[in-house]
Amino acid sequence: MRTFLLLLVALLVGFVLPGTPLHAQDTEFDPDTVQAGPLDNGRMWMFENPPIDYLEATYDFRPDSAWFEDARLSALRIPGCSASFVSPNGLVVTNHHCTRGSISGVSQEGEDLLSDGFYAATMEAERPIPDYYVEQLVGIEDVTDAVYAALEEAETDAERAEARRAATEQIGDAVAQDYGGDAVGINVDVVSLYNGGLYSAYVFKRYTDVRLVAAPELQMGYFGGDADNFTYPRYSLDFAFLRVYDEDGAPMQTDHYFTWTDDGISPEDLIFVIGNPGSTTRLATVAQLTYLRDVQVPAILRAITDRIEAMQAYARANPEVASRVRNQLFGLLNAQKAYRGRVDALQDPYIIARRAAAEEDFREAIQGDPDLRAAYGGLIDRMADIQQQKREQADAVGAFLLLGNSSYSSATLRRAMLAAQYRDAMAAGAKERAAEVKDNLLQIPDQPPALERRLLTVRFEAFRDYFGPEHAITQAALQGRTPEAAAAAMLETSLLASSETAEAVLGEGTLKQEDPAVGVAQAMLPRLREYQSALAGLGAQEDELASQLGRARFEVYGTAVPPDATFSLRITDGVVKGYEYNGTVAPPYTTFYGLYDHYHSYGADTEWALPERWRTPPAAFDLQTPLNFVSTSDTIGGNSGSPAINREQELVGLNFDRNIEGLVRDYIFLPERGRNIMVDARAVQEALDVIYDADRIVQELMTGQLYATEAEADAAMGTR
């Protein structure tokens, strides 16, 4: 919970920290009759407490400790996503969308590998990815007692927060040293589970020599584009291959990897998805959920939508530079759909009623035990009071959202805020602080002028809509103009509108209070500081209450249910299964036939276009090959790239999305409403073999043998 709240603060105030519900029930229901389900908190099981008895009872499958250890060491974490080893030679597979930035980053002059795809026909051609890493979870240590011991002397919320921070840092450093420390690439995360009911030190081996091996064209990895995002049936070839090299520059040798499937999967087959789910809010109280519903999530959705419109308008008006904002738009459009789904989920009265039923069960368990009641009674009500106090800051939540974000906020306004702080520091004689602020100001790069104007406009619109037209901040920003006209006027007259003039006036000391950007910043800062102070204080209290509730929950339920997602390694079970939707039935899997049907149905100038080499496939290409499939596994953001394996630990697919119905999983796990979506391993193999002629990689996947060139692989095939 603490990590989640810190990220929230960073999102809400990035300046300081560099309809009808879609899922609503079709029939009326009595909230008093709704009951919580045994797995409403999901099936994101921890490797330190694997659900062996549950798996045996549910699937007649009882894996031993060696099975779980091999699965843990075969799975990987990469920046923002998941991945896995798929050969003994360090070959790694993940999603294409997890590597877009890396693909662009290794493109050489005159190349557009993101659009055109990439395949290293030789080992020598595998391209090093700068500033990248792959992490393998090599150890897990229970450090709960050590963290709790560090909190015993702390009295206030602030003291406990600081003691917890210091303890986890110290414990993490000590555990890292036990495993060899930085010298051998050890990185330790001390993870709070059950909101602090349990603490585990996750020990990662980090590999930094990672090279791009193969990736399809963007149009194949993102087939259907934003229109198909969070939908199913799907036809996306969302995969990419990397390779980890050792400290001697040779392909890493490992005993732990998932073998590539021979037979694939069938409907009703048991699969496991292993990865690093990012963040869920399933242990939050109902009061926290209703605050999210009424204040935070709608504000975030509006901010995202405003910036999508601004960037799309910029791209339309400036097509020659549209590619510069392509990846940003992909991310924003993905977030927009996700937050729309979250709004729908939180507005579904059945979901709130079911969460309320679970909370009442939890409350009764606490009240029914004298010791628990003495230690934890009243916590849920205190959490509700915190949410009510947070609501008093609702206008500032929306008005200041993304204020300091370097990609989605006005550079001029960020400079103005720092300039105001610089002037205050100089006036107070705090020269060291003034120098620090000035340095930060001068590091803010210029936005393209047209984009800067649009970003400043949406900020002024937010001031007007959240604070009201008569508020001092709105008046300072607009001065009787429309938001668009006010933004244009500021950019024409402010000396902070460009990095060059900003550096000049700061160097000369000629920046005046009358500068329009400075005037807006001076009007903003008192309310911003009030908001930051309130949010920090309430956040500290909320952190502490969440931690105490986590300890209470852990005492009541133990590990019978998994904790919220924390971007730490989890394993989730499910079965391959279609579902009813929109008056019809979604199949368990789709095929390449469907991909070509979409191409011919929608046309060559749509999001369902095909790259040239795909338009007329070779005769050997099997259009019946399964392309995407769905299961009831419990996944969330961060699970992108997660391997889907069968009982024999054969990799059968790669998780890359969930359907729109599955967006309720941020708050509750209802397997009947959602599905996770995967690329079928058979489709990846068919594409590599027939379309891309990547025999070197196909043979490595099938045999584990490393081939330096295509010729070697072809020769080996000829001898078998």
Compact summary:
This protein is of the alpha+beta class and 720 residues long. Helices cover 47% and strands 14% of the residues. 46% of the residues are buried.
Question: What is Rg?
Answer: 27 Å
Number of helices: 27
Percent range for helical residues? Answer: 40-55%
Describe the biggest sheet? 9 strands, mixed
Broad structural category = alpha+beta
Strand content: 5-15%
Separation of termini?
Answer: 55 Å
> What is the 3D shape?
globular
Average pLDDT: 92
- Strand tally: 21
Q: Could you list the spans in which at least 5 consecutive residues all have pLDDT below 50?
A: 1-26
Describe the fold and architecture.
With 720 residues, the protein is of the alpha+beta class. The protein has a domain at 286-533. The protein is built from 27 helices and 21 strands. The strands form four sheets. Strands 1, 12, 13, 14, 17, 18, 19, 20 and 21 form a nine-stranded mixed sheet that branches. Strands 2, 3, 4, 5, 6, 10 and 11 form a seven-stranded antiparallel sheet that branches. Strands 7-9-8 form a three-stranded antiparallel sheet. Helix 7 (157-178) crosses helix 22, helix 16 (411-427) crosses helix 22 and helix 18 (449-467) packs antiparallel against helix 19. The chain is globular, with a radius of gyration of 27 Å. It starts with a helix and ends with a helix.
